[in-house]
Design goal:
Structural class: mainly alpha
Strand content: 5-15%
CATH topology: YggX-like
Number of helices: 3
Largest sheet: 2 strands, antiparallel
Radius of gyration: 14 Å
Number of strands: 2
Length: about 90
């Protein structure tokens, strides 16, 4: 049976992730607060940010930036988008 939770992004009951997507406390928080749908959508936005802004995941500043953007996304706050991006 699929576990559900109240998603922090959508504020409604949705299917949860099956396991923590990241190690440690951050992964546990995501597992308990973020739906599988919101996580998948974040992954797409994160990939777009990395590619369009030419980010290097080796850089600690980049990881901090992406973490900040992720929590902003899950909290329904404005996030950065690539210049000229228009949603479909």
């Amino acid at each position: 049976m699929t576990r559900t939770l109240t998603c922090s992004r959508y504020q409604k009951e949705l299917p949860a992730l099956e396991r923590a997507p990241l190690p440690g406390p951050m992964g546990e928080r995501i597992l308990n607060e973020v739906s599988a749908q919101a996580w998948q959508e974040w992954q797409s936005l994160q990939t777009m940010l990395i590619n369009e802004k030419h980010l290097s995941l080796i850089e600690p500043e980049t990881r901090k930036y992406l973490s900040d953007q992720m929590w902003r996304y899950f909290s329904n706050e404005p996030t950065d988008l690539p210049e000229g991006y228009r949603p479909q």
